[in-house]
Here is the input.
Amino acid sequence: MTRDRGVRFLDRTTPPHIATLILLAGLGALSMNVFLPSLPGMAVYFDADYRVVQLSVTVYLAMNAVLQLFIGPISDRYGRRPVILAGIAIFMLATLGCIFAPTIEVFLAFRMIEAAIITSLVLSRAIIRDMVPQNEAASMIGYVTMGMAVVPMIGPVFGGVLDELFGWQANFWLLFLAGGAIAWLTWTDLGETAPLEATSFREQFADYPEVFGSRRFWGYCAASGCASGAFFAYLGGAPYVGTEVYGMSPATLGLFFGAPAMGYMVGNGISGRFSVRYGINRMIIWGVVISAIALSILLALDLIGFSGPFLFFGFAIFIGLGNGLVIPNSMAGMLSVRPHLAGSASGLGGAITIGSGAALSALAGSVLTLGGGALPLIALMLTTTLLSVVAAFYTNAVARQVGASG
Here is the structure.
């Protein structure tokens, strides 16, 4: 099946339109970052330390990682459509809990449950792999995530403005309404794409060792996890850097915060256009090298005394650019190692990527409160990016050994 064959918009008897996949992925991105400019203000509202409020990022990512271990096998067994619809419904209920939470502990509990929306991101990628082969999947994932990148670019801007006008709860009302709209679109347009098999839930999990046994799978996971780790460290630390180090207001921080998304959108566009021509492994290498060079320059500038919001957030664009090249191509590689286990591979690979991101987000929040300006965050992002360079070259070498395409 190709992405064009048999697809009719708002007809759930056919595979979904690419616009539906973009919006499904975008909702997960919006829930991750729209409220980030509000974190310092939320610390005041709940009378809690910034490190505690910042856990709203960490626990969300950690629960994302756990859920992805189950989402893949469940969707391989029962289908992509019902799992996505259930995830959106749970997300909307949890969002209401966040809005009316009386304490930071209650808020964090509902924030963890909000992570159910990861079904829409994970399974939008699996749906693509259901529809098209490896290199075309990388291309299509690139286009989907390029459209999705608009959300994290404008989400914090809206979040900062909504915070200043109506308070931090307005960001979660926005998520609730967006969830309702995407639920309607999913119900109307999303046709089932999974080749369902009459296997038990236990048998689905029994397939994980087959995925575990692939060195290429682990290489793609490591490249994606370490490259995106720099971005997740940014998510955890940039609100503090912008507010406490550079003295920015929520609205101004929101405007600057989306800088990586600009690069991510460009990187995804390049992936969509050139992954088929040059292969996924070469695109991954380009991505990690670009990020490593940019962060090395930023670290050197900070060490010699050149620092400021324009430099910090400007160089963050290159983190997004590198991720835009690495992530869709790494994900296409993960899903293609064992194509008949695309859902399981998507969930497992996503769990590893997001799990490492949760750890780095928490680490970023911790090291920044010790002082030192933006330097600790820059050093942390560079370290994880250099690890992604090692992983990318290793994966390329393994792919050559086994004769894998791309």
Residues 18-190+201-402 form a domain with the Growth Hormone; Chain: A; fold (CATH 1.20.1250.20).
